[in-house]
C-alpha cells in the first residue's frame, strides 16, 4: 500500500509522469532545450536576424546580404511567412516588381525566445 501512495505522490509531483528515481542521487530538474525548428535552420535564422535590426529589406537586399540564391531565399522566406514570422509585401516601382520583407511581432517574439534558449544552453554547458 505504501508503494502505491508513494507512486501516486511522485506521479502528482511530476505532472503525471511516474518516473522511478535513483536512490542516493538528486535528479536534475532541468528541462531539455528545444529551439524553434522554424528559426533554428541556418538561413532562416540569418533572415530573421537581418530583419530584426531594420524596418524592412527588399528581396535583393536580403539575397545580397546573406549571399544566397534566389531560390534558397524564396523557399526559406516563404517558410517564415507561413509561420507568421515574416511579412512579405509585393509592389511595383516604376513597373518593376518589388518584394519587401519585414519581421512581424510574432517573429520578434520567436527570435527572442530562440536567443533565450541558446543563452540557457550556453550557460548549462559552461556550468559543467
Describe this protein's structure.
It is a single chain. The protein has 6 helices and 3 strands; from the N terminus they run αααβααββα. The protein is an alpha+beta fold and about 130 residues long. The chain has one domain: Orthogonal Bundle (Arc Repressor Mutant, subunit A), CATH 1.10.10. Strands 1-3-2 form a 3-stranded antiparallel β-sheet. Strand 2 and strand 3 form a beta hairpin. Helix 3 packs across helix 5. The N terminus is likely disordered.
Features:
alpha+beta; 128 residues; elongated; 3 strands; disordered N terminus; Arc Repressor Mutant, subunit A; three-stranded antiparallel β-sheet
CATH third-tier fold name: Arc Repressor Mutant, subunit A
Number of domains: 1
**Strand fraction:** 5-15%
Average pLDDT level = 81
Q: How far do the termini sit from each other?
A: 40 Å
Strand order of the largest sheet: 1-3-2
Uncertain runs with pLDDT below 50, 5 residues or more? 1-28
Q: Could you spell the SSE succession in H and E letters?
A: HHHEHHEEH
Number of distinct beta strands: 3
| Name of the CATH architecture | Orthogonal Bundle
What is the CATH class? Mainly Alpha
The coarse silhouette is elongated
Fourth-tier CATH superfamily name: Winged helix-like DNA-binding domain superfamily/Winged helix DNA-binding domain
Helix percent band: 55-70%
User: Roughly how many Å is the radius of gyration?
Assistant: 22 Å
Please identify the structural class as seen in this structure: alpha+beta
Amino acid at each position: 500500500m505504501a508503494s502505491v501512495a508513494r507512486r501516486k505522490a511522485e506521479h502528482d509531483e511530476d505532472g503525471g509522469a511516474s518516473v522511478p528515481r535513483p536512490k542516493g542521487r538528486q535528479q536534475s530538474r532541468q528541462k531539455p532545450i528545444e529551439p524553434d525548428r522554424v528559426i533554428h535552420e541556418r538561413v532562416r535564422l540569418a533572415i530573421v536576424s537581418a530583419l530584426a535590426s531594420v524596418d524592412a529589406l527588399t528581396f535583393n537586399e536580403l539575397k545580397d546580404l546573406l549571399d544566397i540564391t534566389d531560390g534558397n531565399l524564396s523557399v526559406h522566406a516563404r517558410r517564415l511567412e507561413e509561420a507568421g514570422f515574416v511579412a512579405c509585401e509585393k509592389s511595383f516601382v516604376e513597373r518593376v516588381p518589388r518584394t519587401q520583407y519585414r519581421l512581424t511581432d510574432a517573429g520578434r517574439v520567436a527570435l527572442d525566445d530562440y536567443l533565450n534558449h541558446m543563452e540557457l544552453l550556453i550557460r548549462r554547458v559552461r556550468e559543467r
